[in-house]
Structures are given as C-alpha cells and as structure tokens.
Amino acid sequence: MKKKFVHICEEFEYTWIGKDNGMLPIYAYEILGYDSEIVTCNLKRDLPDEIRGVKIVKISRWFKNMKKFASWVMFLKRIPLYFYILKNAKKIDILMLFHITKCSYWNAFFYKKLNPNGKIYVKADFNLKVYNKEIERILMKPKTLREFFRKRKETKEYAKRKKLITMIDLISYETEEAFKIMKDEYAGISTIGKTIHMPNGYDNLFIEKNFKIKEFQEKENIFLTVGRLGTKEKNTEFLLKILEQVELKDWKFYFIGSIENNFQKKIDDFFKKYPEKKKQVIFTGEIKEKKQLNEYYNCSKVFVLPSLWESFGIVMVEAMAFNNYILTSNTCAAKDITNDESVGEIFSIDNLKDLKDKLTNIIIEKVDLKEKEKFTQEHKYKFKYEKLIVKIKILGDI
What average pLDDT does the structure give for the chain? Predict the structure, then answer.
C-alpha cells in the first residue's frame, strides 16, 4: 500500500509549485511512489486542483476578513485546517511542515493526537542569523518596556517550538553551516539522530524532459536576475546603480519579475538619464510559466542575485541547472551554491565597486566562463531533486 505524504502550506501559491514547497511533494510522488497531497488555505483561482499527480486540497479559513491582531485570531482562522488534520490524521503516514514555529507546532499537535505513530518531517527553511538573534533576545535582560514585551512574545513562541522539536522525526537544514551548528540541538532540545542536510534543488526531471541545455557557444551574452523587483530584500536598486557605471558592450542585462509600484519610477528615471541603455537593460515583467522562464536561464550565461537576505536562493540553483555562472551577495547559501566560489563569485552589497568590477571582468573576458562551466556541470548534480528526495525516504521505511 502506498505511503500517504501530506504537506501543509497555508499560503501556497502557483509560483511555489516549482519551489521546494511544491517540488518535495511532487518528487515524493514521482520518485518515492508516495500518494502526495498539498494542503493550503490559499483559494486563488490560478491554483490547480492537481499538479503532476499531486492533489492540491484547498481549505477555507474562518473569519477571513478579520485582521490578524493577535495569535488567538490566527488560531480561530485555522480551525478548518485543524478539522482537516483531525479527520485525516490516521490516513497520513508522513506530515511535512515548513519552519520550526508555533504554527507548525499546532499542526503537529493535532496530527500526533490521532496518529501518534505518524512521522513528521519539518523543512526548516532556516536562517541561522535570525535564530541567533532571537535566542540572544530571549536570554538578555530587557532594558525597555518594548524589549520586555518582545522577549515575552518570543519566549512563548520558543516554548511551543521546543515542544514541536520533541514531536518531529526529521528536520532538514538547507545550508551546510546551519546543519553543522544545529545538527545536535535546537534551543537546548536534543535533535541527535533527527537532522539531515538537504539543500534546495532544481526540477531535473522537468528540465530533462523539456529542454536540451545549450552548449556555451550557443548561449547569448546575457546577465540575468529573477525575483520580486524593487522589494527591500531583493535589493534591485543596487543593480541599477551599478548599471549606471558599467559599459555592457555586447552584453544585455535582463530583469525578470513583478515590479513594485514604488520601484517603477526608479526604472523610469534610470532610462530618462540613460536612454541609450534601453536596448541592453531589459525588464520583461513577471513570468509565471515555468517553460518560458527556463528558456531565459538556458540562453543566459551569468545569473546575478544582489539580495540583502535570502533563506536560500532557489533561483540561483535553477539558473545553475542551465550552467549559469553565479554572482551573488553573501546570503546564507552563497558558499554552498557557488561551491566556495569555484562556480561563481560572492560580492559585497556594501561596495558598488565590487560587483561593478566582477561584471566588467566577465564582459572583457578576464573570467573564462567556458572553463567555469565544466565545474558547474559537476557541482549542480548534488542539487537534483531526484537525488535529494531520497534523503527523506528513511521516514517511509520506519
């Protein structure tokens, strides 16, 4: 009989199908042979009822128009989701949750109440710097009323997280650094024998079925960035400032993604000041269709990510699947993805000249991209979801 694998992701969106939220249930179905479901409270019409054999179960929240001004309000809103868990718990062999949080605790709590032998897998989607700051605030003596209330709130949150840790059967951390530091304990609670290192990956089965990855000589001189353009974390303005100074010559720079309203003016101002760059600096808008986005990855040679922060940076792995050279800010997974800068380079977001020089060196061919591609072809295989999904098979074998 097939194992039942259910991933609860309340805010699941169409574009997340190609990310870890969607890929792990899909590969659990396609590679491990599990009966997979994604359960969400997102009722947007663009979300299909099924994707590649994985059923998407949509559950309406209670009090949809009530604002989230307190934790008990969110609990009330989630009651239909808890009813689903209680009703189906005994049928679920493996429950997959995202993040070690109080929200995950309640999902795990109701699941274990009716299925104590069921297995819980939590994908941590972990930021080590954020975790360290939270622990520091919990341990510190508050000096202000604001610090007092923040500490009280975070202490309650971590009390639930610690209880969650005792219920979890498997936790995966995305970066090697986080795994090494967190493999034996979380907030003082032992996790020995429960943790694995599993980076985010790319949809290799889809790519192998639908694409012939272009040889280096077939690619175009394109720098590419993908994301929600103009958001604080994506730091897109940083790229515009650099492109004011860089002579692109026979290269183009493509920006793919939705554009924040307040950022459109900065784009307009950029082209008013540098109208000659309109043919080389190109904004495509958001591309939701996976095949179309992958065509851009397949044509480009270099992927650039200037983020202020990322939990991982899945777009870099997607670009690397098509042998793109990676230029990235020093985000959590930068060293892992660039393989300590053997298949890319890490730049400082505090210094415009750093990335400017790296772009220029590529343009004037000081960097041998064709030679670098050989290392990328070897390195990228560790990010195949076909390989990664096997790491959670241990839960189905228990």
Answer: 93
